[in-house]
From TrEMBL:
UniProtKB keywords: Disulfide bond, Electron transport, Membrane, Mitochondrion, Mitochondrion inner membrane, Repeat, Respiratory chain, Transport
UniProt protein name: NADH dehydrogenase [ubiquinone] 1 alpha subcomplex subunit 8
UniProt-annotated stretches for the region Disordered: 135-175
Location of this chain's protein in the cell: Mitochondrion inner membrane
Protein family (similarity comment): Belongs to the complex I NDUFA8 subunit family.
Source organism of the structure: Nesidiocoris tenuis
Function in brief: Accessory subunit of the mitochondrial membrane respiratory chain NADH dehydrogenase (Complex I), that is believed not to be involved in catalysis. Complex I functions in the transfer of electrons from NADH to the respiratory chain. The immediate electron acceptor for the enzyme is believed to be ubiquinone.
Lineage, highest ranks first: Eukaryota, Metazoa, Ecdysozoa, Arthropoda, Hexapoda
Amino acid sequence: MVVSHDITLPTEEELTVQEVNVSSSVLRSAAFHLGKYCEFANDEFMLCRTENNGDPRKCLKEGKEVTRCSLEFFQKMKKVCRQQFESYAECVDKSSCNFQFKPCRKSQGVYDQCMLDNMGLERPHWGYFSKAKIHDTKRPKPPPPEIQVYPDATPALPDDYPRHPNKYGGYYAHQ
């Protein structure tokens, strides 16, 4: 990556957070409930990234909130539905080579019911996260980018400027 002198990078302390240290199958198994639980933090982060043209340096606070929310979700879920979730995640991990949900519908149902009973989280339907939503934020909108003003184009040639026919035929530049 090329960096110039006028680019400021965040410090190591600004970037250091406790990570969500889980495997792909665990993350995939928890994705629907995790997405629903941390929906506001995720939407806030994605709105920040969109408003700042994808610049991650301007959204560190929002990114840390997503990580904090994810850790909180796994800690709460572990207290109330650990056994049901572990059997579901193990099924997703071992039943297919690409983490398919289909072979694990029975253990998924048990896990979903536990999450609904203990955390009040219903598994969202398949199209829920792709629906258009309006996100209300308290974060101020960033200023619009400066409009770059370029000098006017080179003026056209005067009408009396000599014009010659094209070398290999075709149309004249000016009739």
